Amino acid sequence: MKMKFILKILISLSLAISLATGNLYADEPGTKPNLPDTQSLPPEEVAAPEEDPEDPKWKKAEIRVIGDRKDLKRIPGSATIIPKKFLEETRPTDNMEVLRRVPGANIRYQDPAGLTMNLGFRGVSSEVSRKVLILEDGLFTSLNPYGEPEMYYTPSIERMERIEVVKGSGSILFGPSTIGGVVNFITRRPPKDPTLNIQTVGGENAYFSQMVNYGGTFGNTGFDVNVLRKQGDGFRANQGYFVNEANLKTIHQLNDKHSITTKVGFHQQESQATYVGLTTGMFNNNPKDNPAQNDKRTIERYSFSVGHEWVISEKTKLITRLYSAYTERNWARQNYARNSRGSTIPSDTIATYDGEPYTSRNNDTIWMRGTNAHRDRTYKFAGIETKLQTELETGTIKHEIDLGTRYHVDMAKVQLLNGPTTPDFVVYPNGVGTSPAVLLQSQTSLANSGELRDDERRSAKAVSVYLQDRIRLTEKFSVIPGVRYESFTQTRSILRGRRDFDPNTFEYLGGTNPTAQLDKTGSTRNNIVLPGFGTTLDFAKNMTWFTGVHRGFSPPRYESAISPTAEDIALKPERSWNYETGVRGDITEYLSGQLVGFLLNFEDQIINSSAAGGNFGARPVNAGKSVHRGVETNMTFDFGQFWKLNYSIPLDIIYTRTEAKSNQYTYNLNAWVNGDSNPFSHIDTNGNRLPYVSRDIITLSLGITSRSTGFYARIEWQYFSKQFHDLENSKTVSWYDTAGSTASNRSVLNYVGIKSDVSGLDGEIPAYELLNANIGYKKDNWSVFLSGKNLQDRKYISSRLPEGIQPGPFRQINFGVTLQL
């Protein structure tokens, strides 16, 4: 709580400094200082100036692939900008709705409003976005970047001016978790003139969102402040949520050489998010059902940063950033059980859910129990980074150099509290004493606290150094070598935990396993060198050919690196070699695009049988390998420009082909550790497709924008081919209970990749398609719009993780208005 208090003090001081040093009304009205582009550590190679609405080239496409823009030609790899214009015309309600349109992206939903981001690129795992570096104005957004990089907090899309995505060698300047790429959300800079913006949106499923934004420039100081309220019932039962946010950004120009940037933020969230998914019968009968009506997740986050930019000379500047964040993530989850062969209903069951009309089918019933557990966690991080940017010449060769270093600290407090074992009340149909098997009325609330079972302190310290030199051998051809060095230490202190844990099998003993005071501490250290090299060639006026290779890495999570007995498991960071080549640019004034081929060798993947990140399962090992090959392309043809009309009529074609396959013989680690030589315990996964990666993703979009009236409209079709849930690429059948009635038959079926689909836990993710549309009218200071997502109301499976079928968002139609004063 101490860091939370400090952050509150810093927020107050930032406000006071902004008012005290700004000379807010000293200059004449309309005077604009020379404010630098001082987003906190953005990917400068991807940073772009605001689009000029009068420049016709910005009307070619709403998602603008990098072409001839001067600041962006430096990237030796694929890069995509989602500009302000696209965000304004589509009015997304969550980040994944936008990012799944980026070539190479794969996403999945698991909560009512995309509050948890699951994003991966080019076949890399999308689970809680662990392998992608997510930034806001260049600052970390994950819980603990070097120990638990989960994206349970996600920056609200309503606040964003644009989004930048880098998947190539340009990501060598950033880390950690860059195997999948870098995503940088950019918020609004302080405007020149004082401006008040109000946006109100409402729609289906009780959705409501309102953001009030005010900012301006007074004398040498610019500021921008926004307040957001968002809420809804979700697209399934028992999925209510709300989000409150407040953010302040200031830029103060001290003189021609020095400027100060501050940013403070507050985020509050409450949602009925759950791990419990549906069975197949439940999904087929009512995909909007949700048995976990008592699950509740709360998040509270405070963030602060202050930056200093020193323009040393015309070609040299030094940028220094100090940043910190504090996050509380508490999650009460109701205990439950699934029926299986020979199982009986638990005595504390308070609600039963099954796939009517096929009741009591094996694996198709979920019993919600009268107890719960509280997973209370507190995360803190802080750091300082300094970056020198300079240009110099050696003879006739020009160099553009980025040299930087960062010191970063993570801290976490992790607790699990078990609620009381006796429910507060039960109501039986035939009076007191009736068997719980015929329990009729469910309990509507469970304990708000419980008995402490697990108590841990986790921390990480990291030092990073990086250097990149863009060597311009000619005006059109550049080579870009770079290197990054990461050194980090992770520590895990287990104060309390379950007593009976086997460090050899990595399993807890079943039955009653008492909690014990352990007071054990373990640490592990890793050092890694990450080289990168790229080239860019401007072979035509507005066309660039690029190549790149770089080393990506992701640190192991605390729970993987250090065992529950505080043993250093000696795991290496997960690493990859990423190769790509492609062309991008404006082919003609009405045709632009990008074509990229990529190859990714992913090695040292951490493999275990942990369920939903729990502390149990087989001993983690660096045993995973995979090869990812593919092609990404997106083209925009503007019929309006082609026919010289007073309309922009862009046709977007975005296609990704990803062949992400296992390159390993997978052992059943539990069986292997226990000496089981049965061949059915081991599965050859070489050549199998990786889970949750669509081989083919297609987006077709046709829009129309009037150059004179402010009218715009767009229709979009998206297709996602089937995915597998597991590395075995299991096929599923509904007759498992008959064919697999014996243990030997079940082993044979499992070995050949056939599993039951009844539980919803296993099986393919069928292909699905979505139809979206937007229409609106925009004048100088106001606009109205109507947006529709999944207009056909497709009922589709987005994921079988963490624990059963999680449907994707159903139809959502919103109406909104904006006003600028």
UniProtKB/TrEMBL annotation:
Keyword presence, Ribosomal protein: no
Q: Could you tell me which residue ranges the TonB-dependent receptor plug domain spans?
A: 72-182
Any signal peptide, and if so, which residues?
Answer: 1-26
Q: Which Gene3D superfamilies match?
A: TonB-dependent receptor, beta-barrel domain (2.40.170.20), TonB-dependent receptor, plug domain (2.170.130.10)
- Membrane topology (UniProt): Multi-pass membrane protein
Q: Where is this region: Disordered?
A: 26-56
* GO cellular component term, pick one: cell outer membrane
Which SUPFAM superfamilies does this one have?
Porins (SSF56935)
Q: Which GO terms describe its biological process?
A: siderophore-iron import into cell
Membrane-spanning ranges: none
Where does it reside? Cell outer membrane
Domain TonB-dependent receptor-like beta-barrel: start-end pairs? 268-791
Q: Which UniProt keywords apply?
A: Cell outer membrane, Membrane, Receptor, Signal, TonB box, Transmembrane, Transmembrane beta strand, Transport
Q: Which family does it belong to?
A: Belongs to the TonB-dependent receptor family.
Q: What is this protein called?
A: TonB-dependent receptor
